[in-house]
Design goal:
It is a single chain. This protein is about 75% helix and about 0% strand.
Length: about 150
């Protein structure tokens, strides 16, 4: 009886895991939501720097948002979530066909995001501005190769 109960429990767990698996559409929607949050954070920080009187608290929060998401980017692009078909996405096929290039671009972004967070956390807004510029370069490089024009 104990073996039977364990088998039923394992089967139920397996069914629950399958039932919770995200569809490609859900993966794309989550990916887009996360990128929008990072974009909003970058815009807020950029606007603050441009104002001439950067808001250190806003920039610190923005850096935390970006750095908190940066290490997850590769996981947001599983097979089956590419451009085309019923799924509306700007992800270019190169994300999957040039996996090494995409992995490097994501790693470069993550390193730059961490640098931005460290600089923002220090309170040195000049350093944070420079770090954000370096981060922006990694955004641009990835977008040029791996994101279709909207």
């Amino acid at each position: 009886m104990r073996k039977f109960s364990m088998m039923v429990g394992a089967l139920a767990l397996g069914v629950a895991v399958v039932a919770q698996a995200a569809t490609p559409q859900q993966v794309v929607e989550t990916r887009q939501k996360n990128f929008k949050a990072m974009g909003k954070a970058m815009k807020g920080a950029g606007d603050s720097f441009k104002s001439g009187t950067p808001d250190a608290a806003l920039i610190k929060a923005s850096a935390a948002t970006v750095a908190g998401n940066a290490g997850q980017i590769e996981k947001w692009f599983p097979a089956g979530t590419a451009l085309g078909g019923a799924i509306k996405t700007s992800a270019k096929p190169e994300i999957w066909t040039d996996k090494a290039g995409f992995t490097k671009a994501a790693a470069d972004f993550s390193v730059a995001a961490k640098g931005f967070k460290v600089a923002a956390d220090s309170g040195n807004m000049e350093a944070a501005g420079k770090a954000m510029g370096a981060l922006g370069s990694t955004c641009k490089g990835c977008h040029e190769k791996f994101k279709a024009k909207d």
